[in-house]
């Protein structure tokens, strides 16, 4: 696989966990890892008489970057790791470093150590603008036993098919199996259902919702057969609120994949809001894919 993995690091316990997870994923995908520390003082301390202070702070920031790289090397001996120091707005710097990357990996939260970076807010900005999928790792993800399972949530929308593509690429590179999950709930009657009710007279709303979810899973599975034929795919259609259903499946997964936007309506899955809920609460790392399918 071409490319590299980028991991944001600020010295916090959350960042340590994220770098370890990123190192493991880079090793499984067969790509190098860039550990990036962003410091926020560039351009402010360069004028005399503060240039000496700037050099001192920059040296300290480089130590943080080097520390993060060492965390990765200890986690995955033999992995190619590069320590990178960057400056400017943290999310913008990380997005810039993500050009050509397979993944960018961040901790769910960060700290104010040296750079003033709070990865809670940086993660949100990075998810919105990164050119590649963004993985947000919870602090609880400390040296877990690999399950070789990737879970992806789908609802039939273009963005959820983009998530399917991202999940398929990761599962292929990592040698993992893939579980495609669609959730459904009986929709509330309203103007948006009028067309469906006219086309399907006498059909219970619950049946329509379940059929829509089944169609989303079938479309995702067909796409995976075409694009990732070597990946073992499991289909799941389950009734219930999407965040809770996906979070339950994520408990036994190495990675949960969602898109940034979804359909709503019959499927009951709006991945914009669902992805935010899962990024904040899922027990495993969550990959958010922004890419629309080609």
TrEMBL record:
InterPro entries: Rossmann-like_a/b/a_fold, Universal_stress_UspA, UspA. Gene3D superfamilies: HUPs. Pfam families: Usp. It comes from the Bacteria. Residues 4-138, 150-290 form the UspA domain. Belongs to the universal stress protein A family. This is Universal stress protein.
């Amino acid at each position: 696989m071409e490319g590299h993995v980028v991991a944001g690091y600020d010295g916090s316990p959350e960042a340590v966990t994220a770098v370890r997870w990123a190192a493991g994923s880079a090793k499984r995908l067969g790509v190098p890892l860039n550990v990036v520390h962003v410091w926020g003082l560039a351009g402010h301390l360069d004028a005399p008489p503060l240039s000496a202070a700037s050099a001192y702070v920059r040296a300290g920031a480089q130590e943080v970057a080097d520390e993060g790289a060492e965390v990765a090397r200890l986690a995955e001996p033999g992995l190619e790791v590069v320590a990178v120091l960057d400056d400017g707005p943290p999310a913008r710097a990380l997005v810039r470093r993500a050009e050509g990357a397979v993944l960018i990996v961040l901790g769910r939260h960060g700290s104010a150590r040296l750079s003033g970076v709070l990865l809670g807010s940086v993660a949100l900005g990075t998810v919105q603008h990164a050119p590649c999928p963004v993985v947000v790792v919870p602090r609880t993800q400390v040296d877990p036993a690999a399950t070789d399972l990737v879970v992806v949530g789908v609802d039939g929308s273009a963005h959820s098919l983009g998530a399917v593509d991202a999940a398929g690429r990761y599962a292929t590179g990592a040698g993992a199996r893939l579980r495609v999950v669609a959730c459904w709930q009986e929709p509330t009657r309203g103007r948006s259902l009028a067309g469906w009710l006219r086309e399907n007279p006498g059909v219970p709303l619950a049946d329509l919702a379940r059929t829509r979810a089944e169609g989303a899973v079938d479309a995702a599975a067909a796409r995976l057969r075409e694009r990732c034929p070597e990946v073992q795919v499991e289909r799941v259609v389950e009734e219930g609120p999407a965040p809770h259903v996906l979070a339950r499946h994520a408990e036994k997964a190495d990675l949960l994949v969602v898109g940034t936007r979804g359909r709503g309506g019959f499927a009951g899955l709006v991945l914009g809001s669902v992805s935010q809920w899962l990024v904040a609460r899922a027990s495993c790392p969550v990959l958010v894919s922004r890419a629309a399918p080609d």
